[in-house]
Amino acid sequence: MGDIYSKIKETISYIQERFSVTPEAGIVLGSGLGNFKDEITVELEIPYADIPHFPVSTVEGHSGTLLFGKLEGKTVVCMAGRFHFYEGYTPVEVTYPIRVLKFLGIKTLFLSNAAGGMNTQFKVGDLMIIRDHISFFQHNPLIGKNDNDLGPRFPDMTEPYSFELIKKAEATAANLGFKVHKGVYCGVTGPTFETKAEYKMLHVLGADAVGMSTVQEVIIARHMNLPVFAMSVITDLGIREEDNVITHQEVLEAAHAAEPKMTAIFKALIADL
């Protein structure tokens, strides 16, 4: 039993003393997507700072609490605010909460993020279902000794994002009359936004959108055989004609504007679990 396993047990024990119902789904909210939590009938809210071995969120747009409650009749646990490598956390610390969600009993993980668009069909405020990712630019969180109690040494990544959930999300969006894209997300370290040359390079490599989160969380989820559905809100365009500057404030505003559509899709998928 590795050290991380004993830490997880301590964290789980602390949480389950306060909330004993097993959640069916775990949700992670990205930059500017914190209003989603208003959809949840919250039964318990625990600040990250109170949870043993949990990191603390340091970024504007990430509130830093673990919420438990009901959504569409299902018990869910929601991370309002996530952690990023650029905050100075190790990949193991960044992904620690994903391990905790799995050990709390979730059967499906839902991830959201704000991303820069590189596909020329994309506009600010568009939604992209992530069908695959490129993670070579981020440190793999499984580097180091493998704990076989958590998952295999060499996890398969043929289906990092659940094909079944992607199909359901596309059908839901069509029923609701929402236009959604489907594409490849590239994870980078940040915290700088990409240069124009970097955006072009990533697009040539096959990425439709780029961001500073998500892929490490997905790797850890798949290591534990946890199905994942993830969606990006396109909050800025990396490949563009004008010379405007991208600001974090603009990213948050674009995410807020697109949030109701993403929320509707997430709710429909959770209702169907």
Automatic annotation (TrEMBL):
Residues 25-271 form the Nucleoside phosphorylase domain. Keywords: Glycosyltransferase, Transferase. Belongs to the PNP/MTAP phosphorylase family. GO terms for molecular function: purine-nucleoside phosphorylase activity. InterPro entries: Nucleoside_phosphorylase_d, Nucleoside_phosphorylase_sf, Pur_Nuc_Pase_Ino/Guo-sp, Purine_phosphorylase. It holds the Pfam family PNP_UDP_1. Pathway: Purine metabolism; purine nucleoside salvage. It comes from Polluticaenibacter yanchengensis. PANTHER family: METHYLTHIOADENOSINE/PURINE NUCLEOSIDE PHOSPHORYLASE (PTHR11904), PURINE NUCLEOSIDE PHOSPHORYLASE-RELATED (PTHR11904:SF9). This is Purine nucleoside phosphorylase. Its EC number is 2.4.2.1. The purine nucleoside phosphorylases catalyze the phosphorolytic breakdown of the N-glycosidic bond in the beta-(deoxy)ribonucleoside molecules, with the formation of the corresponding free purine bases and pentose-1-phosphate. Transmembrane segments: none annotated.
